[in-house]
Design a protein that fits this description.
The chain has about 170 residues and is mainly α. It is built from nine helices and no strands.
């Protein structure tokens, strides 16, 4: 993914974000479909319609239909889980933490794609939404699957740069 369309929308003050997007386009730590899925899931998580559309154009050439669906699924599930578990963590009422969440998450086990990629995509979404419990949970799953720190850090880096680009594009429209 080259991010040329996204970079063209960034205002002058977002020069570092443009440079970081250029650096990301040369990323070699992740496989191409893992990278594209992290980018697309991150764009979905930021809810920036322009970025979603631009990322979908590029991701559609890389990701299978199942992987695109799983990206939507990761963003959707994390939209729910990140709010719930971050709130449980922030509340001082310990009773709530011991109660079952009663949230349906069956799709976490039936997403239909590579498990590591799905975990990386959920991890990136959780980073954007700032849910420490979810970040810890997905990082532990990635570690169990022997994913190294460089790949986990790459997912964080991608999520952070996509989030910054989204903010800058939204701010320039005001």
């Amino acid at each position: 993914m080259k991010f040329e369309k996204i970079k063209s929308l960034l205002p002058d003050y977002a020069k570092d974000t443009k440079l970081n997007l250029s650096s990301l386009s040369n990323e070699t730590i992740l496989e191409e479909n893992a990278f594209a899925g992290i980018v697309f899931t991150s764009c979905l998580t930021t809810q920036n319609k322009k970025m979603i559309s631009m990322a979908l154009d590029e991701a559609s050439d890389i990701l299978s239909k199942s992987e695109l669906n799983a990206s939507y699924l990761a963003a959707s599930l994390m939209a729910m889980n990140n709010i719930y578990y971050r709130s449980i963590h922030l509340l001082s009422n310990n009773d709530l933490a011991s109660m079952p969440a009663n949230l349906r998450m069956n799709a976490m086990a039936s997403h239909g794609i590579d498990e590591i990629n799905f975990e990386l995509w959920c991890f990136a979404a959780s980073a954007i939404k700032g849910c420490g419990i979810c970040l810890d949970s997905h990082e532990q799953e990635l570690r169990k699957k022997e994913v190294n720190s460089s790949k986990i850090q790459a997912a964080l880096r991608i999520a952070s740069v996509i989030n910054a680009a989204s903010l800058s594009i939204n701010a320039s429209e005001i």
